[in-house]
Design a protein that fits this description.
Aldo/keto reductase; two-stranded antiparallel sheet; oxidoreductase activity; single chain; alpha/beta; TIM Barrel
Length: about 350
């Protein structure tokens, strides 16, 4: 697969990125290293992690994923030079005091988190440093409506960009990105960066999959016009679009307990556990089978081939899952199948927005 540029930066990455949030919770360190080895062998040069990982986040495993990656880099020094490494600074704590104290995210928080990530990752520089979720109060992770009464902003976007500039000048980060962002946020980060000569956003990492296509309602135009690249996460909707829950549901006695939705009650309470999301996934999964495809292959091919997507972030627990996801690359969806997909979306919209 050819490398693709990320925004206006000099980063060139594979159109498939290995996400690592399962490492340290569902996946042991040894198995994580085997997955990383296989991904590198198969040509993947893009890794994404976060200071908050593993997921579901809890105090006992906070930072475990970066530590696992750092140990892999220590064992394989040459690997660090072969990959583009992305990680994220957590936004306000959202009820997770082990992630961040206080209600905001200050410039000093950004600097301290970056330095901690560098130590855990055992590297001198982070290629793409992202804000995991906005410091502003915005609807995210399944929330639908913006409420001005909930605004608690303490650190302006300008101040955040100045913190990134200090890190860039110190040689600790190369480029910056956002995650779980809105059109306003992307515009404002780019506007202020250009106005004040501060680091320009290269990417936005947002959810994008068959059951959650809200990005196509305006954010895609914003990113296209501003030359900001999309990193699409949850292309399989936490497993809903693999078909594994089609018969058993997400909370029944036969639900796979090794999968995230089946194993973690906190995940079932999120957008992926909604009955409407499962009902929609079942329709898409059957559509895939009717066209001779596995649900996984169709869902991934949908992301892999959309003009909006620069790189699709896949998360796996096993080598078999990794190979299945990578083998889906090159699959094209017939125009009539794409029309049927859009017909379903017209009827049910985005139940896991």
């Amino acid at each position: 697969m050819n490398l693709v540029p990320l925004g206006a930066s000099d980063l060139r990455v594979t159109p498939i990125c290995l996400g690592t949030m399962t490492f340290g919770e569902q996946v042991s360190e040894a198995d994580s290293h085997a997955i990383l080895d296989r991904a590198l062998e198969r040509g993947i040069n893009f890794l994404d992690t976060a200071e908050m990982y593993s997921v579901p986040t809890r105090a006992e495993t906070f930072g475990a994923t970066e530590t696992i990656l750092g140990n892999w880099f220590r064992k394989n020094p040459a690997a660090r030079q072969k990959v583009v490494l992305a990680t994220k600074v957590a936004g306000p704590s959202r009820g997770m005091p082990w992630v961040r104290e206080g209600v905001g995210m200050t410039a000093s928080d950004i600097v301290a988190s970056c330095e901690k990530s560098l130590r855990q990752l055992q590297t001198d520089v982070i290629d793409l440093y992202q804000i995991h979720w906005p410091e502003r109060h915005v609807p995210m992770f399944g929330s639908m409506y913006y409420d001005p009464q909930q605004e608690r902003t303490q650190t302006s976007i300008h101040e955040q960009l100045e913190a990134f500039e200090r890190l860039r000048k110190a040689g600790k980060i190369r480029h910056i990105g956002l995650s779980n962002e809105t059109p306003y946020g992307v515009h404002e980060f780019v506007r202020l960066a250009e106005q004040h000569g501060l680091p320009r956003v290269a990417t936005v990492q947002n959810v994008y999959c068959l059951v959650s296509r809200g990005l196509e309602n305006g954010l895609d135009e914003t990113m296209h016009r501003l030359d900001v690249s999309l990193l699409a996460y949850s292309p399989l909707a936490f497993g809903l679009l693999t078909g594994k829950y089609d018969l058993c549901g997400t909370d029944g006695p036969d639900t796979p307990r090794d999968a995230r939705i089946g194993k973690f009650e906190s995940v079932r309470k999120q957008r992926w556990g909604r009955p409407e999301a499962l009902a929609a996934a079942r329709r898409y999964n059957q559509l895939a089978r009717d066209h001779g495809l596995t649900p996984t292959r169709m869902a991934l091919a949908f992301c892999y081939t959309k003009w909006q997507v620069a790189s699709t972030i896949i998360g796996v627990r096993t080598l078999a899952q990794l190979d299945e996801d990578l083998d889906a690359w090159g699959t094209t969806l017939a125009p009539e199948l794409l029309a049927e997909i859009d017909k379903v979306r017209w009827e049910i919209r985005d139940p896991a927005v």
